[in-house]
Write a structure and sequence with these properties.
single chain; 53% helix; 17 helices; seven-stranded parallel β-sheet; 10% strand; phosphoenolpyruvate carboxylase, domain 3; 10 strands; Rossmann fold; globular; alpha/beta; three-stranded parallel β-sheet
Length: 432
């Protein structure tokens, strides 16, 4: 790919695979599937620079699912490209609609969530006719998100020369998911790279994985024995009527059984079907309790049991009246009052302290499956004098969460080394 005048090559040296993918993407609607950390955004920058050079009056739109990602892309583009900084525009709902209309007229490259663009197209303050490139980040989301789909459809109907670049690290691992994305984005070419490809391999940093095992206390084992005994009983009942094929069954399989029984019951209102629907539901709930105990500890399990007691369903009531479950809950309550932590908490603090002692401004990210666990880890780190922040998604009904503005603030503070440890749920992987 020839050198482009809108790229600052002192700051960015394109890799061969990035140039090869960009060369495809300037010619046809392209889906780029590339592992996280290998520079999908830089490919988008190369294509955007080519558009600016070859379409002097053309504009570019980049969609991202969250405001933190919108800000991240704006920062990367402005850092690498030589275009006047005022021509890069990040759009948010906080900018008045009449002001956004002026920005659409003056800007060249726009970054926004799909909802903002959908609203502005619907309100006729945005005309996509002179947009010559649409970049869709996290494009696997375009399959489910209505706003994504709406914007893409409007783009193809309005743009004089539509060109789409879809970016994802997660095609879902299934051909049908890729086919859906292809259909939604009118994809004509797919560029896939893995960490093993010859042109990518030199840039893949080796990840050293060290697995550290901790023994759970005797009290945990007693609770687990009670829960497992009940769980195996429920599985045996499902196995006896061939709803499952063996006692070794995954949660996914149990959920599928529950779904199938639910559909059958809705059609037949059969009492026998209802019975096994209750059993499947009980098995799923206890499997989750066992998982919480083993991986998260007493505090999340205590909260889970409290939440179950508020549940009025027959499956939950029946389960909570079982002697084994009553015994397990009583033991959990006792250990909760004693403040017994999961032993991995002690190990986590030990590791973090060791890393901070080696390097005062070190950055550490701790991932956790559940928001409650994130809060628990934060409290434990606070108690040990370790500066940390929680990084979770937006609030759900009745729960806590971070606004996207707060997410951006925390990422910036982490980048500028204002604290050492970021504790994140899975959303952190996307935001970081």
């Amino acid at each position: 790919m020839k050198k482009l005048s809108f790229i600052n090559y002192e700051k960015f040296q394109p890799r061969l695979y990035q140039e090869m993918i960009a060369s495809t993407a300037i010619q046809r609607n392209t889906l780029c599937i590339l592992p996280t950390g290998l520079g999908k955004t830089y490919i988008a920058i190369l294509v955007a620079a080519w558009i600016l050079e070859n379409k002097p009056n053309g504009k570019i739109l980049m969609l991202a699912p969250t405001r933190p990602l919108v800000q991240q892309h704006l920062k990367t583009f402005t850092n690498i490209m030589t275009l006047d900084k005022q021509l890069f525009v990040a759009l948010t709902g906080k900018i008045k609609q009449e002001d956004r209309k002026i920005l659409y007229e003056k800007g060249r490259i726009f970054f926004a969530t799909p909802q903002i663009i959908k609203n502005d197209v619907d309100s006729n303050i945005l005309d996509l006719s002179n947009f010559y490139l649409l970049i869709v980040d996290e494009c696997h989301r375009s399959v489910k998100k209505y706003a994504y789909t709406e914007v893409v459809e409007r783009y193809f109907s309005q743009s004089l020369e539509p060109l789409v670049l879809g970016l994802t690290a997660s095609p879902g691992g299934m051909q049908d998911k890729i086919e859906e994305v292809k259909k939604k984005l009118k994809i004509e070419a797919i560029e896939v790279r893995t960490e093993k490809d010859f042109d990518v391999k030199p840039y893949v940093k080796e990840t050293e994985i060290e697995r550290i095992y901790v023994d759970i206390p005797e009290e945990f084992r007693w609770i687990r024995a009670m829960l497992e005994d009940y769980y195996k009983e429920k599985l045996s009942e499902l196995l006896s009527v061939n709803l499952i094929l063996s006692m070794k069954v995954s949660k996914k399989e149990l959920l599928e059984v529950q779904k199938k029984l639910g559909e059958m019951y809705n059609d037949t209102r059969d009492g026998k079907v209802a019975k096994y629907l209750v059993i499947a539901s009980q098995a799923i709930k206890i499997e989750h309790a066992i998982n919480l105990l083993e991986t998260q500890g007493i505090f999340p399990l205590h909260k889970y049991f409290l939440d179950l007691k508020k549940n009025k369903s027959s499956s939950t009531k029946g389960m909570l009246n079982d002697k084994r479950i009553i015994g397990a809950i009583n033991k959990v309550n006792e250990l909760y009052l004693k403040g017994l932590e999961h032993p991995k908490m002690t190990k986590l603090i030990e590791i973090i302290k060791e890393e901070i002692e080696k390097k005062r401004n070190t950055k550490i990210i701790v991932f956790a499956n559940f928001r409650d666990t994130v809060s628990q880890i934060k409290a434990y780190l606070d108690k040990n004098g370790i500066e940390a922040r929680e990084f979770i998604g937006q609030a759900k009904k009745g729960g806590k969460g971070l606004s996207q503005k707060d997410q951006v603030k925390i990422i910036n503070e982490f980048e500028y080394e204002l604290f050492n440890v970021l504790i994140a749920t899975s959303i952190g992987e996307e935001g970081l």
